[in-house]
């Protein structure tokens, strides 16, 4: 009989040293990006004014360390946000769906209520604007004025959440009869036995409290929706300052609104994503979902809110075409795989593997092994292009994202070639391009 939780043989991110470096370096990088684009210093040209950045570090972080690292108001606000959404996630009705089959043969049930929850959230927001009488919501102003302590709060929160999940992964699950216990399913890559590495990468595959799935919740709710709120906080700030909103800021907001709510509304598709099916939930995912996504993905909007930058019509058209093409590839490729896996596209060409699974070699999936990543990279590029070409800072997102997807492609290739053996080789002979047809 195969062991349910074998020891991890290969440690991603260069193992323990890599996990220590990333635990420190990623939050520092988020802080650094903030320092380059805020009310006190705004990087608009290529060269960096180190003296100005040093002064902000001194004034806002060192001299103000208590407010920065132990900000009571931000903790209250963030806990209300996180646990408020968790309660909404649990009580708002939706449909129940099963995830992929786990190693012990079982499947987890998920409550899919993204549509209902988004509707509730947007209704509350519009209700607040109606109640206040204009677009000057104090909660959005609070977000804008507290970005730095909020970055630190979400980072600290991620450390606590990852620790909670790590400790919980050692406590056996109680069976349905209330007496028997059963082993938790651990992530293939998160069971090295080294506490630092396992805490960082995530030891348990699907940490849950009752039927509340912490990983899916963090992936789609508090971080993604905070990103949306930060973006509109930047619009509000610019509107109050200039009396109107520039077309560049409006564009990046509309594009990202589409992307955010596409993710939140299509949570069924997320159930087959690598993060949910394969990765454990530790500091890396917690920090990524709760701090990295809202604070760095909103960088273009923050940058644009600080200046009056309008794009010419030709640029608006060109960037919109890039965004729509990317979105079309991203969406239709992901849908095609999902529908095919559900048996809804029986006439498409595929390779039958030894297990029940078939590998699609037709449509989008006949063009490249991860054509959906190509769509996502085009989307990322369109967001960065709205900021013009003054500074490389705002191109951080597309550069980082391309590296992330490249790493995912490599990890997925290793996983699939192990899982499908000769059938995967057969597939790669049919479809040699990895992400961009005829390029890579
Ligand atoms: P994919 O959607 O590409 O899923 C890969 C998995 O699909 C493989 O492990 C395999 O799973 C299955 N598969 C691979 N090839 C085939 C095929 N030819 N036919 C059928 N099944 C196949 O990757 P991700 O989960 O990484 O990404 C999903 C989406 O999320 C992408 O569009 C990506 O761009 C986006 N994304 C966005 C991020 C963000 O921060 N905005 C971060 C990460 C991803 P199996 O073992 O089941 O066969």
UniProtKB/TrEMBL annotation:
Localization per record: Membrane
What processes in GO biological process is this protein linked to?
A: ergosterol biosynthetic process
**PANTHER family, alphabetized:** DELTA(14)-STEROL REDUCTASE, DELTA(14)-STEROL REDUCTASE TM7SF2
Residue stretches spanning the membrane: 12-36, 75-96, 108-131, 151-174, 242-261, 281-299, 311-330, 377-406
What Gene Ontology cellular-component terms does the record carry?
endoplasmic reticulum membrane
> Which source organism does the UniProt entry give?
Dekkera bruxellensis
The record's keywords, sorted A to Z, are: Lipid biosynthesis, Lipid metabolism, Membrane, Oxidoreductase, Steroid biosynthesis, Steroid metabolism, Sterol biosynthesis, Sterol metabolism, Transmembrane, Transmembrane helix
- UniProt xrefs under Pfam families: ERG4_ERG24
Record's protein name: Delta(14)-sterol reductase
Among the GO molecular function terms of this UniProt record, one is: Delta14-sterol reductase activity
In the record, the note on similarity to other proteins reads: Belongs to the ERG4/ERG24 family.
What kind of membrane protein is this, topologically? Multi-pass membrane protein
InterPro entries tied to this protein: ERG24_DHCR-like, Sterol_reductase_CS
């Amino acid at each position: 009989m195969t062991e349910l939780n074998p020891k991890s043989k290969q440690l991603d991110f260069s193992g323990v040293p890599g996990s220590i470096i990333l635990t420190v370096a990623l939050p520092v990088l988020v802080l650094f990006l903030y320092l380059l684009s805020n009310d006190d210093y705004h990087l608009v040209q290529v060269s960096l004014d180190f003296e100005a950045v040093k002064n902000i570090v001194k004034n806002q972080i060192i001299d103000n360390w208590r407010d920065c690292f132990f900000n009571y108001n931000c903790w209250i606000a963030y806990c209300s946000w996180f646990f408020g959404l968790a309660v909404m996630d649990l009580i708002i009705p939706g449909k129940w769906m099963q995830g992929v089959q786990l190693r012990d043969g079982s499947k987890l049930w998920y409550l899919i209520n993204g549509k209902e929850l988004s509707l509730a959230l947007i209704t509350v927001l519009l209700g607040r604007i109606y109640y206040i009488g204009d677009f000057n919501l104090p909660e959005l102003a609070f977000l804008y004025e507290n970005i730095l302590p909020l970055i630190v709060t979400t980072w600290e929160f991620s450390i606590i959440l990852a620790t909670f999940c790590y400790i919980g992964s050692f406590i056996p699950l109680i069976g349905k009869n209330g007496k028997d216990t059963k082993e938790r399913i651990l992530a293939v890559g998160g069971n090295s036995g080294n506490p630092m590495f396992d805490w960082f990468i995530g030891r348990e595959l699907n940490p849950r409290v009752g039927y509340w799935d912490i990983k899916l919740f963090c992936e789609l709710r508090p971080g993604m929706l905070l990103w949306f709120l930060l973006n509109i906080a930047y619009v509000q700030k610019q509107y109050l300052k200039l009396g109107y909103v520039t077309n560049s800021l409006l564009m990046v907001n509309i594009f990202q609104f589409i992307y955010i709510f596409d993710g939140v509304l299509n949570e069924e598709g997320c159930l087959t994503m690598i993060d949910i099916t394969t990765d454990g939930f530790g500091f890396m995912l917690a920090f990524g979902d709760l701090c990295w996504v809202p604070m760095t993905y909103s960088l273009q909007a923050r940058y644009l809110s600080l200046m009056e930058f309008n794009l010419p019509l030709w640029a608006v058209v060109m960037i919109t075409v890039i965004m729509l093409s990317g979105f079309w590839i991203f969406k239709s490729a992901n849908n095609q795989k999902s529908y095919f896996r559900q048996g809804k596209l029986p006439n498409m060409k595929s390779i039958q593997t030894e297990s029940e699974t078939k590998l699609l070699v037709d449509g989008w999936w006949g063009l490249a092994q991860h054509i959906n990543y190509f769509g996502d990279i085009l989307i990322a590029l369109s967001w960065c292009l709205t900021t013009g070409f003054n500074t490389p800072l705002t191109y951080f997102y597309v550069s980082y994202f391309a590296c992330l997807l490249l790493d995912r492609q490599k990890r997925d290739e290793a996983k699939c070639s192990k899982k499908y053996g000769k059938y995967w080789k057969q597939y790669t002979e049919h479809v040699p391009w990895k992400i961009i047809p005829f390029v890579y």
